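Trying the structure run again after the queue cleared.
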Amino acid sequence: MDPALVKRWQAEGGELVELLGLARERLGGVAAVRLGPRPTVLITDPQAVQHVLAQHPDQYVKRSHRARLLVGDGVLSASGDAWKRQRRFLQAQFTGTGMRRYEQRIAAAVEACAERWAGYARTGERFDLAAEMRRFALDSIWRALTGHPVDAATEAELASIDDLVGALPTLPADAVEVPPAVAADLARLDTVTRRAIEAARAGDAGPDGPGLLHDLLAAAVERPEYTDRLIRDELVTLLFAGHETTATTLTWLYLLLDRHPAAREQALAAGPEGSAERREAVQALVHETLRLYPSAWMLPRHATADDTVAGHTVAAGTDVLVCPWLTHRDPELWPDPEHFDPSRFTTPGARPTVTGAYLPFGLGPRACLGLQFALRETTALLERLLPAHTVAFDTVPTRAAYGITVRPDGPTTVTLG
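Done. Tokens:
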């Protein structure tokens, strides 16, 4: 793409995703652009996405994750053999038998949220929907990690994660020295995680029984790499990845239902409470929300060797941007892509079947570990709240803020009906 166009776009304050969307329209699913000192290739074609993320992950690597300052050497930012060991250990915690361990913990977090919403409905109290969704998701993952519900003091301390998520995109990727406010937030986060580690080491399993934190501590007995620092980094990684994306997805879902109220009625009419039909319909609401607002909206990689992707040469040293946001909005894959239509995920043949066309949690060996956990908790909460309440927004955000995740750019104050 013409560098002069890039400069003009940046000078006019355009969003990066809009510029990349223009590159895809002009140049196709594998598009060369220059956004900085190194050449950059934008990948949105599903087969090219597979090539980069699933078929050649060792050739297209992460350089430095934007959240590294927050998560340290946790599995989200780790690489090489260390990442493989960490991934192998955590993978078992979020699939099959591992997931069954969390069912009652998720159900308890859902019930706590439902009780709060019942109180809001009785009193007519206005509340911040995004904050409430973060509260639920944080409670759910905290129970999974520690065996405890999140208490008010811990919740307040962990609010630093949200402040850090907002601040990190403004810092250089390799930042070491940070502004005092960011340093203070990191210190608060370290304090609460250190306290949780010490409590778990002392045998405090909580009312829900031992959690994943206890498993990490047990692993440290035989695996010397699991130092207190790495356990802290994994704990923060799971807290960040396990609540930020879920909360954002739920917030976007309610905003979409505000614009498309019939979708809620159709989901509830799909079957009686607790039926497989209703669950499938609710999951379709979640999947269509994730199509429009994927948890991983941009997946940066770095080419370590010369390669050919979909007939295009990619030289070693090239920055590669895989962009699920744009793949999910490709009209050749998703007819009328800007329209919210959950039936894409319930009607046979209504969605593309090619791998790489739908990847809200990434793809390949570095896909999100908590995919099943996230889908289970969002579905369980919606099955409980959707029949009980309608949501009315005071004002509706009209833009998205693109950072580590994609958040609504504006307040989300609501009342319940």
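The radius of gyration is 21 Å. Worth checking whether this holds up in the mutant runs.
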